[in-house]
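Project channel, design review

CF: Before we commit to the Haoranjiania flava constructs, I'd like one complete example in the thread so the newer folks can see what an input/output pair looks like. Taking M23 family metallopeptidase.
RD: sounds good, go ahead.
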Amino acid sequence: MKKVFWCLFLLFSVSGIFAQNYPQNYFRYPMDIPVSLSANFGELRTNHYHMGLDMRTQQRENIRILAAADGYISRVFVSHTGYGNMLMIKHPNGYETLYGHLNDFYPELMEYVREKQYKDNSWAQDFTLPAKLFSVKKGQFIAFSGNTGGSAGPHLHFEIRDINTGHGLNPMLFGMGISDNLKPMLYGLYYYDRRYSTYESAAVSIPVSGTSGTVSGGTTKVGTPKVSFGYAGEDKTSPSSFKFGIYKAVLFVDDREVISSTLNNIPFDQQRYMNAGIDYKKKLQGGPYVQHLSRLPGNLLDIFSGDSDGIIDLGDGKPHKITIHLEDTKGNRTVVNFTMQYDPALQKEQTFPKYLVTVQPGKPGRLNTPTAEFIHSQYAFYDYFNFNMQEITSTAPNQVSSTIKLDNYYIPIHDEYSIAIKANDLSNKERVVMQLTSGTFKALYKGLWDKDIMVGHFNRLGNVSLIKDLSSPVISPGNIKEGMSVKNGSVLRVSVSDNLGTVKSFSGKADGQWLLFERKGNTFTYKVDKYMPAGKSKLVLTAEDVAGNITTREFTINKN
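CF: and here is what came back for M23 family metallopeptidase:
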């Protein structure tokens, strides 16, 4: 009897750990098709954790999306980036669900949104709704699935949030009929010499055989008394090709739990701390995602627990047993065991040029070159390291400043910094923009002038310079032709390109009447509706780039 009671106690305890008192099966799967996922909560993405589940839609669009539970539609968002077309539902149990990358909302809501877009003369929208305007019942049709916004293929992005905090919660902890009996997989195991920054100490691989985490070769000897660990791994919920992020990782030293990380309950304004949770440098240099099993000093995201920051002291020279658990939300676990020992004979020292300046987490800073100034906040950096700021003379014909090298693109920065650069040519000053090149990534900023100095803001490091842009965007009319006839339901398509790659805005008007052109990338689409004047009208298409260059094209069009 005691044995049965103990087994039931353990079962209840384990299930309680993972359910965390979240209501089980209160939310239904939001489609009437078989459950199939392509991404989970906490999966690693560029500059953020994935905050929900990506639900497959059978490789097609316009699957009927259903309300996961009773509530009311509380927010609508329309954009060519991010969630695309998105709606949120507030539920009476204190949670909110989100449905992203939609094509169209259900008819009554779609009509409300269209009227607001025309009232605002803006296709992009982000607004909240009162409680009784659009009430919904569990299983009610609310939208059609799609591929809008920052989506690479048809699917539904689904989230659960806490209404009181706004934090994203792991939907796998709510049941929803999603099963999982597969253990996480380990692809790589690494250690870091923590006498130095994680950006200056390269990850050293610990050989692992198989995805179950077997370390062979006896004791791993290292040339540093202080180490931390990182792992590359993925999880699955089914034998499909889709691989997900790992929910929980725990580090034990000599059978004592030292630190753990759990991906749940993440504030939306802190997603960028994902860059502090990975070996950012290794990823940007073409390697895998390696997750730290230590908290970097500037990582303020509350996903860690334990009595340590994860840096292990091996200074006694004795062998120490290291155990790592990788777990999913259902309690499936992969265990890694090995022994590690510090050997002073293997120790190597690093040296750094004296002109470098050490930057520190939690401390703001200001660095200068003869023609530039770089200012960062106390939140900017996750780890201590030696910062390299240089000024490089440029002879590029459209560049009107030196190139300011802000260390390297593979060093993450958490928030926006300020960069002020002096121009060496003030002709066509109004067409000068600030350009950042960060590896293969480029960004433009229309900064503010202070006499001959432009001030701008970016959130990546790299090379920054002032560029004179005198080229206007190019409007390609697509299927629009002079004198063409259209009717309600006809679709007009236009594409816009720019020499620097960034289109700031586009608009279409018929005899002055603003028209609802939807955006996907740099393609703009208008489905002729009641707002286009009947008969013959002048269609004016206007595009503007970041520098303020404007292009206009005009067509005569006839609506039957």
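RD: helpful, thanks. The chain has three helices and 47 strands.
CF: The two ends are 83 Å apart (CA to CA).
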